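If your schedule permits, I should be very grateful for your opinion on a structural question. Thank you for your consideration; the sequence and its tokens are set out here:

===
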Amino acid sequence: MVSKMPQAKNDSTPILSISDLKVALSTDEGEIVAIEDLSFDVLRGETVALVGESGSGKTLAALSTMRLLPPEARIVHGSIVFQGRDVLTLSENEMRKLRGDRMTMIFQEPSTSLNPLMQVGKQLAESLRIHQGQSRRAARDQVLALMELVGIPDPIRRYKSYPHQLSGGIRQRLIVAMALICRPDLVIADEPTSALDTTVQAQLVDLLSKLIRDLGMSVVLITHDLGVVAALADKVIVVHSGRILEEGSKRDVLTDPLHPYTRALLTARPLIRSGEHPQIGLSADPAQPRPGRIFGSCPFAELCPRRAADCTREPPRLVRLGPRRRVRCAHFDSHGPQGAKDE
């Protein structure tokens, strides 16, 4: 049976610390900056949500952490420290030992993670045999226990199934199981519910909520759906055009948003309904993201209802309002908190 003692929530030592990350993309029009000045921490037992639209840079941040960037992307500078080691300085062999063992990723599309020519149970068991050296029998028993834990019915029969024989919901649960099989310290979940219908989305959100609570994992949640954020996150980081626009606790960001872009996301229609979770989500794009392009000095200036002359004259600074609250906007609140500090 897969088990793990829950870690203390919000331990003061970050398990992941990303500092001053800059990522560039090669395009037909030349190189563009897709991520700029990205810095944040994930504490032990904490779920941090990176929120933004498609193209905002949040998935590139996740792939940078896993060292799985596509060929057209490169890290210009910055550091990504996981459990005290900068992953950007590790050899590929050292990274392979980390991936799938101490840090794992849940992808939004199961077809990118599941081998169509291999029984799904054997795919999960393979991770245990590679990373933990378990016997075939021990690995099989642990996989069956985990399949039951993530709510896959009739796990013995499903163990021998191929991906095409299973529903989308079951395949996504298998992806969750695959990410958890080695009991990792950090899980990166990239839009884990976006490929599912609303009912299955709600079921998977409830499952993830229970697993995060019971297993004490640290999680980086990549999503555009604030309903999922409301259900799962402790801390929220709002990203637009590769820059952090706002950061705070879930309660602060969802109930007292400071940045106009965050307000635009919150006023969009709901996409998910699950139990008592707030029904918040993102509908049609309130602001079409354009990676690498900065309008004036602020990435949101062209579409911002509060744009002023200085928004196009001076680069916006990421202002710290407290230990867990930051915003990048010159006009976030005319009566804002005292003692704000530039980053």
Observations:
- The chain has ten helices and 13 strands.
- The chain has two domains: 11-102+182-342, 109-181.
